[in-house]
Amino acid sequence: MDNKKEEKIFAARVEDQIRACENKYMMTHTDFLDLHQRSLAESVIRSTGFRKYGFYGGYDDAERVIAVFLPDYIEQDDPAEYFKEEAEDDPLTVLRITHGRGGKELTHRDYLGALMGLGIKREVTGDILVGEEGADAVVLRDIAEFIEMNMTSAGRSTVSIEQADISDLRVPEQRMEERDASVASLRLDNVLSAAFGLSRNSAVEAIKSGLVFVDSIEMSKPDHQIDEGARLVLRHKGKAVLSEIGRTTSKGRIHVKILRYK
Known about the structure:
Blueprint: H1 3-24, E1 28-29, H2 35-48, E2 53-56, E3 66-69, H3 79-85, E4 92-99, H4 108-116, E5 125-130, E6 134-140, H5 141-150, E7 153-154, E8 157-164, E9 176-183, H6 188-196, H7 200-208, E10 212-214, E11 217-218, E12 231-234, E13 238-248, E14 254-261
Antiparallel strand pairs: 1-3, 2-3, 4-6, 4-8, 5-6, 7-8, 9-14, 10-11, 10-12, 12-13, 13-14
């Protein structure tokens, strides 16, 4: 199936969830979305004029999220705030995966491979947060029991699984490094190049290939202007924040500070 047809099918699914929310007067949601799908969903939602929605992945800065649509009778506009008060309505839960002692340290790929080995779709699982003793996996509540009953190993280690509340999700501390740079302008290609150590040509190619997101929106124009505080994602490379825009030099270059996630 070509990309255009896939995107049309995806857009129709998002619209179906919006119509169900409006017509049945109930909360609805999509499956988990990757960055590209989130950007597409945002465009679809805006085109419908629907306003009470949000993207939710169980914690701030989640990469994989679901789009949640709220009916008018719910006071909150932010799904995360609503679920804090009405936890029983939260469509997500946490699977706490603990590996056996004495084995090799497991990676994100090990846990993801074990989950996919159960025959489930990637769309039912969100972020997998790896720690020293195991991992917390955010999943759709509907699939949690199946995974809990059937996933017994990851990599070459045995694992045990128990459900935990979203409020107990263990989010690893983000390590960041600050770097000073100067750019010719605040165009996306210039800032991306400084943030990730790319040549400008490589930055332009990444942008045009659909690999770059600014504040969770896919950006295809190298000349898009970046504001202070903007969050950049370069798929397969990482995340960065344009934390400060400083003075302009006599030669017209702009000093910036960039926080790069390690």
